[in-house]
Amino acid sequence: MFGKIKNWMGIEGAKLRFHVLPSYPHNIPTINGELEVFAKRQQTITAIEIKFYEIYTNGRGDEKRIDEYLLGTWSSEELIMVDDGFPQNVFFKLHYQKAESNMDKIAKKGFLQKGLVGFAKSMKGIKSTYRLEARANVEGVSWQVFTKTPIEFG
Q1: H, E, C per residue of 91-140
Q2: What CATH class is the domain 2-153?
């Protein structure tokens, strides 16, 4: 009885883990990596969706505003069987389109402009961070399995 409840809730079920580079170049249009799927008992993954987000922070203190932008998605509906000791790796190539502000366009014009734009952004508290999120549907489980990881650009 208790095992059925744990299975229905996804406790001790399938888990996800990203294997991606710690840093990506600014000019690359895709995020390549793999998603490791593992479980303590036999599970069937019916669908996987990976999303790539930009978290844009603007302002300081009470004036601080945070927006999230979806930059790209990747999905698969291939059935994946996992069992204890036999993790499966799913390779993905997620295409995305970065949003570019007017300040970013000015910064590309030259070394001096880049420094001035960087200074202006720091004064206004403007910062972007990025993250990958993966969700998987597991057969016989009511909730999705979920993981996320930060992505750095440098």
Answers
A1: EEEEECCCCCCHHHHHHCCCHHHHHHHHHHHHHHCCEEEEEEEEEEEECC
A2: mainly beta
The neighbouring-strand residues paired with 93 are 32
Contact 146, 37 (CB under 8 A): no
The pLDDT-based confidence of 150 (bands split at 50, 70, 90) is very high
pLDDT for 90-126, tens place per residue?
Answer: 999 999 988 776 666 677 777 777 777 677 767 777 7
- 97-126 burial, b for 16+ CB within 10 Å, e for fewer? ebeeeeeeeebeeeeeeeeebeeebeeeeb
Give the three-state DSSP class for 4: helix
CA neighbor of 43 nearest in space, from 72, 75, 73, 86 = 86
Residues forming a β-bridge with 18: 35
pLDDT of residue 16: 94
Contact between 144 and 135 under an 8 Å Cβ cutoff? The reply is yes
Domain extent listing, the chain: 2-153
